[in-house]
Amino acid sequence: MIIAVTGAHGFIGSAVMRRGAEAGHEMIAWHRGYQPSDILRVTHADGTVRAPAQAVIHCGWGGLDDGTRDDPGVLNSSAAAALRCLRRVCDLADGSYGPPGPRRWVGVGSQAEVTRTMPYGYVKDEIRRATMNMAMGAGVSWAWGRLFSVYGPNASSGVIRYVIEAQREWRSLKLDACDQKWDFLYVDDAADALLALATRPGLSGTFDIASGERVVLRDAVYKAAGYAKLRARGGVGGLIHFGPRQGQTMPPADTRWLRLHTGWSPQVTLDEGLRRTVKGTP
Question: What is the pLDDT of residues 87-122, one digit of tens each?
């Protein structure tokens, strides 16, 4: 299958590109200009012809790497880009630019949508609803993959990355109580789930993408620190200091529909994922 990916150089997008290629798909990085020529029929210099892309996975979203995801300007531009991407897919689907383009669009969401307590989660959920309505009106197949606590070697932010870097540099960690339960998912498993949604054009809806196994955040912190080959201790003056609770409790994910309709299931355990993350983190 030929699949176009926006945000192809980001944490999630690059994993989707890599895992898709490994699975035998032809992957295309579709840049923010969303030019039709990038994903429609292409004739190469040697005379071979690439057919139009059949699906688009929209991974692009600003502010996830530098902590500015709640900035109003970043939210506005990211939301506008998502709508513009789908609008272009809707235009291409009817053959207005030549051969019909992709008729399948998969959006990438976040667990933050469930509570909608932060601007990022609120806007993400609004975009989920808006793109669903837009796709239905244009006859484009639509699905939304809601990611829960994805981690991996190339993540530029997140608690796992923070712990690993601090332990390597012998910096003290100041965290909250970390007694919440989180549902961590290794990035390769997340990418495989998005690809599973992209390759099933008859499947529509919002799907939670998670491991389905909630763990106490403090336990994950200790595991990550341990795999960084440093001894971690809790309490004041230790390598890790746990203070009062500040973070919100993460809502549980429901992966039953995703597993039932796609056959997907996570393949990487938390321990194995942390080992890979520590090994691959620069």
Answer: 989 988 876 666 677 889 999 999 999 888 889 999
Please report which confidence band the pLDDT of residue 231 belongs to, taking 50, 70 and 90 as the band edges.
very low
Structure tokens at 138: 């244009």
Q: In degrees to the nearest 10, what's the CA dihedral of 85, 91, 96, 102? A: 70
Residues 6+ away with beta carbon under 8 Å from 189: 211, 266, 267, 268
Cα-to-chain-centroid distance, residue 239? 31
Query: Could you state, in order of their start, the residue ranges of all structural domains in the chain?
Result: 2-280
pLDDT for position 271: 95
- Whole-angstrom CA distances from 235 to 41, 74, 134, 219, 244 are 60, 37, 51, 14, 12
Distance CA 133, CA 107 (A): 13
The class (CATH top level) of 2-280 is: alpha beta
Q: How far is CA 216 from CA 136, 179, 244, in A?
A: 39, 6, 15
Pair of tokens at residue 82: 């998502």
